[in-house]
Amino acid sequence: MFEKKDVVIIGGGPAGLSAATALYRLGVKDIVILERESKLGGILRQCIHDGFGLQRFGKSLSGPEYAQVFIDEVIENHIEYHTDATVVTLAPDRRIEAVTPEGVLSYSARAVVLAMGCKERSRGSIMIPGERPSGVFTAGSAQAYMNIYNRMPGRNVVILGSGDIGLIMARRLTLEGAHVAAVFEIQDHPNGLERNIVQCLNDYDIPLYLKHTVTDIHGNSRLEGVTVSEVDDSCVPIEGTGKIYPCDTLILSVGLRPDNGLLKDAGIEIDPRTNGAIVNEHLMTSIPGIFSSGNVLHVHDLVDFVSLESEALAESVSRFISGTLSHDRDISVKCGSGIGHTVPQRVSSGDGFSLSLRVSSVMNDVVIKVRQGERDILQRKMRKANPAEMIRLDINSGTVLPSEDLEVLVE
Amino acid sequence: MLHYFDAAIIGGGVVGSAIARELSRYELSIAVIEENPDVVCEASGRNSAVVHGGFAYDTGSLKARLCVEGNRMMDTLSSELGFRFIRCGKVLVGNTDEDLKQLERTMAQGKANGATGLELIDSAKLHELVPAVNGSFAMFSRNSGIMDPFLFTINLAENAVMNGARYFLSHKVISIARKDGRYVVHTEADDFSVKWIFNASGKGAKAISDMLGITGYRIIGSKGNYLVLDKRLGPLLPMPVYPVPSNTYMGIHVTPTVDGNVTVGPDAVNTDDFSYYGVPADKMEYLRESASTLWPHIDKKDVIRTFSGILSKWVDENGVIQDFKIEVRPDLAPCAVNLIGIESPGLTAAVPIARYAISLMAEYTSLKEKKDFNPVHESAKRFAEMDTAEREKAIKADCRYGSLVCSCEKVTEAEIIRAIHNPLGVHTMTGIKYRTRAMMGGCQSGFCQMKIEKLIEKELGIRPEDVRYLRTSSWVLSGKMREG
Questions:
Q1: What is the ipTM of this complex?
Q2: What are phi and psi of A172, to 5 degrees?
Q3: Exposed end of chain B (fewer CB within 10 Å): N or C?
Q4: Would the CATH topology of A1-119+257-325 be identical to that of A328-411?
């Protein structure tokens, strides 16, 4: 038997919690959150450092504190949620099955919110050569071992990748008594936020080597060391530059990808640039009634933007349920020169929306333009544009005409 | 401590475990002595997982005969032992006149070997079988297939244990002495006094053979590297696609796995280092390029993992690869069955190899069949393969079926806990992985490894620093951060 719900939200992390609380405020109360972990909060639970909430709340919170604001609201309003509930089926007709220790929960939803977050790129996905000893962890796994499970991954550490979690873990491991030899980044610019370079590396005298990568892994049982080589301008290792760093632990902070397994099952169209769903300005996917926000849609730099995006999503879902979501055109948003990806990828009405994008490389003194045909809809001058930072542009209602495709580009 | 057994099998890989299982049909006490903490650490768990047809080996060779037998037997073994085997067929694709001649030779050899279901097919039939393949014609081997090499080996071993055999894992053999008509096998842990020895130690076979006094074998390692591709690609590849083989090498092929991934490989590089499984960067690129000439869907972004395996080949003084050697040498080492050069098709032929080895033993001693031998390994259905009603029922019976530990592969806490308490006493993280598929999915253990590590600690009552990954000293964690 399928229980009918107005909205089923898959994922009880920042995106799902923000969507749920915003929906409730909008009067959509027949909702349920399905969370696979034993507690609400998502990945924020293991992010015990501060720096969350500066945009959304105007103050610096730790990850659990940020999540708790929303969890309190869920509990106060008696919003239904299930933890230890893993969704195993998402059908295109919006039927959902979740497995819990109490049995299988089955829903038939008027709208579904995909808020499953992201996963880390692994050693295999970036094809690091060498042996396969223990001691190679993704940064998030090491963080979970330390902050949730009270377990120490190792003592002598090398970090590959300057993504934010890698930087945070460099500090965290140092504070717990491990020796972090260095952070290596294959690109010519750091991949994490500037403030994390300062607060997590510089403050602890941990060197950051740009244009370096791990080219071999040594050890048949536990990791014994890694070979690190310099790379050329096309990120190809330069022969003869290899240097062995003895270590028992390698932490990989080499990028995040939307956790999009369920999307594939349901046949939702995926954007190869983001690895998340293709959505319109209402954050609705290629399947009517299935919406997506947060890191499963595209990887964000700040959780604050996940919340803002999910609150915008809640508005669209509420209108979808009341049948007032407009759809009078079908325009594509194209990535022009210098643009890595955009969200949304489609526009279906004249409603205003927030256009998120990342540039494809580090650039100085540029203008980002949103263009429709010969007409510039919007321009933003930027002194510095960095792929590590998400850029959000507000497109006002009525500015997109029901004619030609949009193009976003950097000049 | 000194243990007494009728027979010791040195090496618990697929051949050693097949011998243990087949020998446990008889009234004998059996010890399997394995150097690693699990039975799939070397070649048995590091291969293409293809069930071969038997056409690629010289007519009259043991390789040909035992492979054909093993292929025929695989359906029965699969249903008795509960590992997945799919008789999906395979194609060897060619483009040139020379390719065609070689395929015709291969086919004639296959027929002489007793392999059935071989036919030459044209481009239209080939593309009907494998839509995206690059090739003008092919040899189609209807009876070739793919299998789960981990559970084949593990379930052979567990079935042997059910029938009375004992496994001694992490017992590396140091020396063997012959005394009073018995062998004393001295290991880094316990010692064993036994009447019969089977040398099934794969990459270590020469060393054990030397210890037995059968010297002079020359073994070379042939290392093959592989890429593993995401499950997105499995549905696009209905069967393994091979190039036209040479006499000694099958070539780099693309192979679907029973779980829906695709493997690409192996290359073949001679090596004398049998413990180095590192995959070099240039090989990864070479594999991708080479296999892309057969099949167009190989993209770096779909690679989830790499691995390698090493075949131990017996060669003569000129370096020419020889047949399997399975022998008893009463002049040098009485009561010892020596297995040398068991390389491909060792996986397909494991059980016939075992039966052949036991038949040699039976020439010297009478074997009495047990009345209560049970060939069936009961395996519970995987949660991932259950329908909703079966899931409801399983959760009602044991609520731990309702806790998904690995969401990529849909593996539940109940299944992890059962795997932790496996009959062989394997306690490693990879032991759980090979038995359940947890940690094998797209996230490659990013979300589930901590939960599995915690369950191992709890179920076995051990400290975090005592949990191992694959090998004896592969510690996973340095300990707790804080007490409590």
A1: 0.96
A2: -60, -45
A3: C
A4: no
